[in-house]
Every structure is written in C-alpha cells, then in structure tokens.
Specification:
The structure is a homodimer.
Chain A (H helix, E strand, L loop, with lengths): L9 H9 L2 H9 L5 E2 H7 L5 H13 L3 E6 L5 E6 L1 H62 L1
Chain A binds a DNA duplex (20 and 20 nucleotides) through helix 4.
Chain lengths: ~140, ~140
DNA sequence: CAGTATCCTGACGGATACTG
DNA sequence: CAGTATCCGTCAGGATACTG
C-alpha cells in the first residue's frame, strides 16, 4: 500500500476524522437505525455533551450522518447514517469485529510484555546494586589503609 | 451491532488504540515489509520522534508489531508486523481504501455544508439588522414627541 | 542510529450555565 | 430536549538535549 503521506493531504485528514475516538463509536452505534441526541449520549459511556455535539457536527459536515430536526415540543433531533455513512459503517464493523475476535490475544500479549519489561527492570536493578556494592568495597579498602 | 459500550471494557480500549492517528499509519506502512525507526519517521509526515517511539512501544506491547534489535554499529532496529498485526492490517487497508474511494464525496459534502452554514449565518445577520433598524425607528419616533 | 529524559505550551475536552 | 457559550484544568505531544 503506497499513498500520499503528507500531513495535509485529503486521505490523512479523513483518516484522522475516522480514527477519532467518538466518531468511530457513533458510526458503529447508528447501525441501520435512528437515534436521538440523548440516546446517543446515554449509549456512549464517557462522552460529554460538548464532545458528542462536536462529533455529530463533524460527521454531518462530512456527509456521513444526517440530522433531522422535528419542530415539536419538546424538540426532537434524529441522527442516522447517510448512504455514504452506511458504506463506512461496513468497514468500521469489520474493525470492531476484529477487536472482539482478537481481544484475548492482545490481552495475553500485553501481560507477556509487561512481565518481560518488569523482569528486565529487576535485572537492571540487581546489576546496579552489585556495582554499588563493588564501589563500596573499594572505598572501604581505601579507608582501611 | 450491539456490544459493551462501557468505557473500561476491553473492546473500547483496543479500539482506542487502533483508532489512534499514528498507530493506523504505522500499521498501514508496515505492509509486508520491515522498516527501521528512521524510515518510519521519514515516511510519516508530521510525527515526532517521541510520538513514533511511543506508538511503536504500544503496538509492540499489543503484539501487533515486532521489534528486532541488531547488535551492530551503528545500531539498527527493524519493525515489522506480527502475524496478528497482519490480520489487523487487512481491515486497516479496507479503511484506507474506503477513504481513497470516497474522498471526493466527502470533500463535496464539506463544501456543501460550509456553504449552507454560511448562508444561514448571513440570513441571521440580515434578520438581526432588520430588528435593529426597527428598534431604531421606534426610538426615533419616541424622541420626536 | 535509535532512542530516553526533561521541559513547556496549547488544545482537547470536562463542568457549568444559559438559550431556543 | 437539544443544544451553544464560557471558563478552565490536564495532559498530549512538540522541541530540545543527552545517551548507549
């Protein structure tokens, strides 16, 4: 795969949008259905009102999500995937499926890595202690004279 | 698609890693080949030494990228996708392909959106100006008495 | 070459308050 | 309900210097 890697190129900018934490979740949740602002907010644990609004604005701007305002009281705004958004949803879904499929492997890799690093840290510590002990011996011997 | 949306669940954490700006680019670049640190740094426009190192450390920890140190002078470190990383690369590639395929549609959507917003802004401005003019008329009439 | 360590700034994003 | 506006803290991440 060879593509334009310049920071200001189209692909990079779109990738940054897609790679966005909340965008990914919003698109994944709007799977063939319409959700209201509050429903999305409740569904996505940890998102603030501000960030959700901003994310939805961006997705709307990119033509991935449609925003329909109903002139009722109380107001009601429905969000849904556009046809373009649906095509992106397909590839997002494979990504989510991938994480579900491989989460155990990743968890195992993390544990193994952390253990290895910890072992290396201990080894380095032990080595340093030995060097110190040696230096101390030399010092003591010097004082003995 | 219905999954655990809690912020601290495995899938969310892995998704956050995958959704990371630099991770995505590194995985995409390590397509069936081995790259050295500096090669990656040169290939990814805009990444700092620090962020690249951090990203590679994370990917290594997750078992997606292998890191091989050659005991030569000058030192040489090769990064490559692990078998697990290759499987992720497949789905990342579809994502990149998607952005390439649809970048024109998105660019068009953005332009259209910006034009619409600008038009709405101008309309609101005009309306405000009219209200002001009306208020001024009332004021003038009042002073006339 | 391939990093780590340190410092420092800006923007991301949370909390709160207010509006249509 | 569905936002926008404002304030403000933190922490991601850039710049720089140093090391094996």
């Amino acid at each position: 795969m060879q593509w334009d890697t310049r920071e200001d190129c189209e692909v990079r900018q779109i990738l940054d949008r897609v790679a966005d934490k909340w965008s990914l979740l919003v698109i994944a949740l709007l799977d063939r259905r319409t959700l209201r602002f509050t429903e999305l907010k409740r569904a996505i644990d940890g998102v603030s009102q501000r960030m959700l609004a901003q994310t939805l604005r961006h997705l709307e701007r990119d033509g991935l999500v449609s925003r329909v305002v109903h002139a009722t009281v109380p107001p009601r705004v429905d969000y849904a995937l556009t046809p373009l958004g649906v095509t992106l949803h397909e590839t997002i879904r494979t990504l989510v499926t991938w994480t579900e499929t491989h989460q155990n492997e990743i968890a195992a890799a993390r544990t193994a890595y952390d253990r290895r690093i910890e072992a290396e840290r201990l080894a380095a510590e032990r080595e340093a202690a030995e060097r110190d002990a040696l230096a101390h011996d030399v010092l003591t011997a010097g004082q003995g004279r």
